[in-house]
Amino acid sequence: MLSGGLDSATCLALARREGYECYALSFDYGQRHKVELGAAARVAAALGAERHLVAKIGLDAFGGSALTAAIDVPKGRSAGEMGTGIPITYVPARNTIFLSFALAWAEVLESSDIFIGVNALDYSGYPDCRPEYIEAYERLANLATRAGVEGKTRMKIHTPLLQLTKAGIVKLGCELGVDFGLTFSCYDPGPDGTACGQCDACLLRRKGFDEAGLEDR
Q1: Burial code of 181-202, b = ≥16 C-beta within 10 A, e = fewer?
Q2: What number of other Cβ atoms are within 10 A of residue 61's Cβ?
Q3: Dihedral sign computed on CA atoms, order 139, 95, 157, 54
Q4: Does residue 182 contact residue 38 with C-beta atoms inside 8 Å?
Q5: In the prediction, which pLDDT does 58 show?
Q6: Which residue in 32, 27, 30, 23 sits closest to 4, CA to CA?
Q7: CB of 24 closer than 8 Å to CB of 44
Q8: How far apart are CA 43 and CA 215, in angstroms?
Q9: Which of 50, 110, 182, 190 has its CA at 20 to 30 Å from residue 69's CA atom?
């Protein structure tokens, strides 16, 4: 699952290093930061994905999030504020929907492995990034698929970044040779695709590079 951000890029690079043939899946879901899809395409090509597929699903039909509706994206929040509560940038059921698409494609590909770059430490309070959520979804995946019921394979959801800080992810990505200049993280980019520098995603990214002692290109 490839958003085009630094987490998913690092996750793809790690899967490639471990010898997986990788099929990258991104989503055009009506997000205001659709510029991330261009970044996902660049990352998929640079890291040697077998194929990059963009699924169009239109979660903006429901709204309810600053990423999919006419709601202001929070800016300039402190680390304490970002670590408290569920922010308005949470998209209702997003990872559940995304994982369902990934599960469907994995069945078609006869793959038993899904990689997702969720992070439980610097995760902005999203409930669908928690370890217990991933564990529950993996159980569901093995109940809900023909491959699981017939015992042909057991679906595994890999979350290699789950217990890493943003700084840890940045360091790992650098070790794996990820060109972070290809990635994009901003929730509220300008008309020219420039990152705002003040939304939660931008601030967490900056925090990661600062704590890692590295420059963000």
Answers
A1: ebbbbbbbbeeeeebbebbbbb
A2: 9
A3: positive
A4: no
A5: 92
A6: 27
A7: yes
A8: 19
A9: 182
Q: Read off the pLDDT of residues 46-87 as tens digits, 9 standing for 90 and up.
A: 999 999 999 999 999 999 999 999 999 999 998 888 878 889
Q: How far apart are CA 104 and CA 109, in angstroms?
A: 9
Contact 92, 62 (CB under 8 A): yes
The position carrying tokens 């700084």 is 167
Residue 33 CB contacts under 8 Å (≥ 6 apart), including other chains: 67, 184, 186, 187, 188, 189
Helix residue ranges per DSSP H, 2-152: 6-17, 36-46, 79-82, 94-109, 131-144, 146-149
Domain 6-212, CATH: 3.40.50.620
Residue 71, both tokens: 């709601």
Strand 113-115 relative to strand 23-28, pairing: unpaired
**Res. 124: pLDDT tops 70:** no
